[in-house]
Design a protein that fits this description.
This protein has helices at 13-16, 21-30, 71-83, 86-99, 115-120, 130-144, 154-177, 204-214, 222-231, 235-243, 248-252, 275-286; strands at residues 5-12, 34-38, 45-52, 57-70, 104-110, 147-151, 259-262, 269-272. A hairpin with a 6-residue loop joins β7 and β8 (269-272). The protein is built from twelve helices and eight strands. It is of the alpha/beta class and 294 residues long. It is elongated, with a radius of gyration of 29 Å. The longest helix is centred in the middle third of the chain and has 24 residues, at 154-177. α2 (21-30) crosses α7 (154-177) and α8 crosses α9 (222-231). The strands form two sheets. It has a six-stranded mixed β-sheet. It has a two-stranded antiparallel ribbon with strand order 7-8.
């Protein structure tokens, strides 16, 4: 678990009293994960709190919540929803009200390993059909952003719940990494060793750097970058070429027809830089609008 962040799983007492409760606590004890057994606001639910140990920030509850159901309980839930669609909305509203926050809810069905297995468990005398299950899945996902997971046995359930705990633990670090809008931003590169560029007399290092800049474009291979560098040895040379174009459209397509050769001998193939890539490069080096989409 993260040293900077401490995560606690809050497990409803009703879950521990069930046959799978022992396997669940053993999984957490073996992995040395922190958990508390409490009477939660909604029965058969699990949620998590997270605190920043390094900055002494008190624990806060996360939005993730698991709602555990047996097969019979889920079928009963489907039947109730078939009678009145508002019953589904009422369930989610009740959970959010009880926890005083909007929760991202995942329903875990215990006793099957997939939706197909769940459908096969329906009996001929059942009041619900497989099509009812399909409709429920769609309503849950698209109306309430709720997904359904499956746990066939005690071990599967314990592993699933612990995997959610791990995801909650690493979430703060992932959010910090995503704060920078660009992966090449200086703040995101602090973990890497800085690259020193020494200018040699033959300008080989500058040429290599120029190629690396071009290769930042998606789908720009080393062969494409090399032929552009061969024709326009520096960024300044390319910018000057753009200025000499008669029209803006000529500038956009300046690089489009440059031939790119790949392979050797009978395996040689030839293609062009192309108009789309040419226009992207033109935008990068000529646009005066910092918000323009490349």
């Amino acid at each position: 678990m993260s040293k900077a962040h401490e995560v606690t799983a809050w497990i409803d007492l009703n879950i521990i009293d069930k046959p799978w409760g022992k396997s669940l606590t053993k999984e957490f004890d073996d992995k040395k994960a922190k958990y508390l057994i409490e009477s939660m606001p909604v029965p058969n639910t699990i949620t998590w709190s997270i605190s920043n140990v390094a900055n002494n920030i008190d624990e806060e509850f996360v939005s993730q919540l698991l709602l555990l159901m047996t097969i019979d309980q889920f079928f009963q839930f489907v039947s109730v929803c078939n009678i009145n669609k508002n019953n589904m909305s009422d369930l989610f509203q009740t959970i959010n009200n009880k926890y005083n926050s909007k929760k991202s809810i995942t329903i875990v069905i215990i006793g099957v390993n997939s939706s197909l297995s769940l459908s096969k468990s329906l009996t001929r005398s059942s009041t619900i059909k497989s099509t009812d299950l399909d409709h429920i899945y769609l309503d849950l996902q698209f109306q309430f952003n709720c997904i359904v997971k499956y746990a066939e046995n005690d071990h599967d359930l314990a592993s699933l719940i612990f995997s959610f705990t791990k995801a909650v633990t690493v979430a703060p670090e992932k959010r910090l990494k995503n704060l920078s809008p660009f992966t090449f931003h200086v703040d995101t590169l602090k973990q890497y060793k800085p690259i020193r560029v020494d200018i040699d007399q033959g300008n080989k290092t500058l040429e290599s750097l120029w190629k690396q800049i071009l290769q930042q474009f998606p789908h720009m291979g080393i062969e494409q970058a090399q032929v552009i560098v061969n024709q326009y040895g520096t960024i300044q040379n390319l910018v000057q070429a753009y200025k000499q174009c008669a029209t803006e459209n000529d500038a956009k397509l300046l690089l489009a027809d440059i031939q790119v050769r790949r392979g050797a001998g009978v395996l040689t193939t030839t293609r062009k830089i192309g108009p789309q890539m040419s226009e992207k490069i033109w935008k990068l080096f000529t646009s005066m609008d910092g918000n323009v989409l490349i």
